[in-house]
Design a protein that fits this description.
By secondary structure, this protein is an all-alpha fold. The protein has helices at residues 3-33, 41-48, 50-53, 56-61, 64-87, 92-120, 130-133. It has one domain (3-122). The radius of gyration is 18 Å and the shape is elongated.
């Protein structure tokens, strides 16, 4: 196993650690640790757990495209944690944990998508046409 391959595998583990931490932590926080007075349990689950379920299959399969677009979903949790840090000092510890988990997922998913995409020969850049370069 070459060095690049081991790095890619480690980034996948980091991304999945952040992902499953968020998936477990968000319902735990919003239902047990600090339930919202303004949101019902079902609304909390719908808003903060359902979006995390969309990339589940692709992340378990190691699809680099899924890891790339899952970063759009994790931005919800960045914003939620930063807003909570600002607005609700009583929930500061929970918001910091959410921010750590979201950052972990974002970092791992970004680099896994990059390196795994390179391994598979995937690119978002257009390949240069050899004929047009010779003219």
């Amino acid at each position: 196993m070459n060095k690049q391959r081991m790095t890619t595998s480690n980034y996948k583990k980091v991304a999945l650690t952040g992902y499953f931490s968020l998936l477990i932590f968000m319902p735990l926080w919003l239902i047990l640790l600090s339930p919202s007075e303004s949101l019902s349990v079902s609304t909390s689950l719908l808003l903060f757990t359902l979006p995390l379920l969309f990339p589940l299959k692709g992340m378990l399969q190691g699809n680099p495209f899924t890891y790339a677009w899952s970063n759009f979903i994790v931005l919800i949790y960045f914003l939620h944690s930063l807003t909570t840090l600002w607005v609700l000092p009583a929930d500061r510890i929970w918001a910091i944990l959410e921010l750590i988990f979201a950052s972990t997922m974002f970092f791992g998913a970004t680099y896994y998508a990059k390196f795994r995409g390179q391994e598979l020969g995937l690119s978002i850049r257009k390949k240069k046409n050899v004929d047009s370069d010779n003219k």
